[in-house]
Every structure is written in structure tokens, then in C-alpha cells.
Amino acid sequence: MRSIKNSNKKNTKKNYFKKQKKIYKNNKKINFYKSIIIFIILFFCFILSFTLIISINQSKYFKNNIKKLNELIKTGKNNIKEKKEIINNTNINSSKTENTNINNGLITKNAHNNLNENNNEIKIDKKNKVKVCIILDDAGYTTKNLLLLKNLTNLKINISILPFLQFSVESLKIINESKNLFPLIHIPLEPKDASLISNYNNQNNYFILTNDSFDNLENKIKKIYEELPLQYANNHMGSKFSENKEKSYQILNILKSYNIRFIDSKTSNSSTFLDVSAELNYKILINNFFLDNEDNLEKIKNIFYNSIHLYKNINNKLKNNYINNNKLLEELKINNFVLIFIGHITKDNTINFLYELSNSEIINDLEFLFVNEIE
Fold this sequence. Notes:
Layout: H1 2-88, H2 109-113, E1 130-139, H3 144-149, E2 157-161, H4 168-177, E3 181-189, H5 214-227, E4 232-237, H6 245-257, E5 261-264, H7 273-280, E6 285-286, E7 289-290, H8 297-312, H9 314-319, H10 326-334, E8 339-344, H11 348-358, E9 366-368
Parallel strand pairs: 1-2, 1-8, 1-9, 2-3, 3-4, 4-5, 5-6, 7-8
Helix pairs in contact: 5-6, 6-7
């Protein structure tokens, strides 16, 4: 009897521990699932919070953009009103006219004439060709490259001849016999670096200097004209001479008396030729780009093609208020919206470039001009 009681006690204890163990396991499972549920809830709370923050920021961003857009619309309206004033009120009497580079906006004559007074927007007909005038300096040393250029019959090339060189007169004869070449006088003017003068044979006595008297200057021009009796001229060197307003006045006055039209090669950014020409009521032209200051074929091509690209895309540039440089607009007006390039006939890379250009498709978009065809 006693043993039975003890046995029952043991069974009761076992059952109790089994139940407790089962309860503990169940509680453990419940706690595990609770943890998962809490984690999921927290994760979704984090996602919702993050989404809410992004939405708030986006709302602020769009509000700011709307404000900026409204400001741009107001600014655009003001720019449209002011665009005609920008074109009409350019500064003609700037004493420093910089060389135009390949990052400037360019504008055509027809674009300027098509200015619509109602909306002040310049519109360019897609059929319009880019007007190009190429001048090659320093002819007279040899006729080799000149004879090569005669073969480029689909181009018009202007050749500027230095006076009193071995082949100066012969060069003029070759040009006059060709249909695609046009001659100019390349007048030697004093540079800032005096040592450059001595590098040119037989020219020392014919360089026009800032210390020349008016009579001496006039006599030099007379002899040059007797050697090369032409109606167009540009300057050879002349960085020092062109900055002297008194001497610029004297030489332009003499050239005007000979009915010679002058192209400022822009060897100095501080050239006074433009100012003086306005005072004399004597119309000149100006160089926009030096093609071959660096004697490198790829760089020559880049200068030329980039400038053409700017020219062809001028309408888009104007719509985006690209042209805001009054001085640039004035320089382009002076050339009647023709791009004037100056290179050198003595550089083989320049001749190679012209041969490539002659065989390229881009010439269908270009109109080549002699200097006497620029109004």
C-alpha cells in the first residue's frame, strides 16, 4: 500500500514536469513568433517612415522647381523684350576688339535681316549656306603651294602676297590666270618683336614702322602699290603698329586714297584700325579666326569645323540666349556675317586641310567668297 502511494507520487511529479516542459516549449515558440511579428511590424514602419520622408522632400523639391520655372518664364519674357535692344545697341567704338574664337556664337547676314519685329527672334532658313572667306598670307617666297591650290577649282581662296620677294610678281601672275584664286597685298607692318623683321629677306626697307614720317609711310605704300597694283590688302604682322592710333589713321587714310579696301588681320587684340576706320568713314573687314597659329592638321580642322558648327546652330543658340556679347555681334556685322579665316600658304598642313576640305561633303553647306564679294 505504501509502495503504491510512492509510485503515484512519482507519476504525478513526472506528469507535472512533462506539462511544465510542454508549456515552456509552447511559450518559447510563441515568443519566437512574437519576435518575428514585431520585427515585421517595425520593418514596415521603417519603410513607411522612409517613404513619407521622401515624399515630403519631393514635394519641397517640386515646389522649388515650380518657383524657379516661374522665375525663368519671367526672365525669358524680359530677355525677349531686351533681345532687339542687345542687337541694336552694340558698342561700335570699342578700343579693344578681341579675336573671335570657336566657342563664340555666330550669326548670318540673312539671319540678321530676318529679325522679326513682332517676336524679336532670328530665324534661319535651313537652305542658307555658311558664307566663308579664306585668306592665305605670305605668298611670294615660292610658287609651289600656289600651283597646288590652282587645282582646287571648287574652292575660292584669297592669296595675300608679300611685296618685293623673289616670287611676288610671278605669284600675282599665277593668281590672275586662275579662276579660283584672288590676290591681295600683304602689307608688312611693324611687330612688337623687332627681331622678326630681320627674318624676312629684302623686306627690312619696306616694313612700315611707327617712327616713319607720313611722307616716308606714303612713299612705302606707293612703292608697294607699284609692285602689286591691287584693290584689297591686309597686314603682315603689325602688332605694334596697329596699336598706334595715329599711325593707323595715317595708313588707312593713304589706303583710302588708293581705293584699297583693308582687312585687319587682328595680330593684336588692341588694334585701333576699327576705331580709325569709323572716324574716316572707311569700311574695313576683320579677321575672325587664325586657322594655323599652330601648324597641326587636326587643330586646323578643329578650328574650321567647330566654327562652322556654331554658325549652323545659331538659331538654337539664340533661343537659349546664347549670344550676349555685343562686341561679337558688332564684329560679325562688320564682315556682313561672313566668316573670315586667315591661314598661311607656307604651311603644308594648311594646304593639306584645303585638299581634304575640297573633297569633303561639307562644302555643299558652304559658300566660298572672294574678298571683293563681301559687301
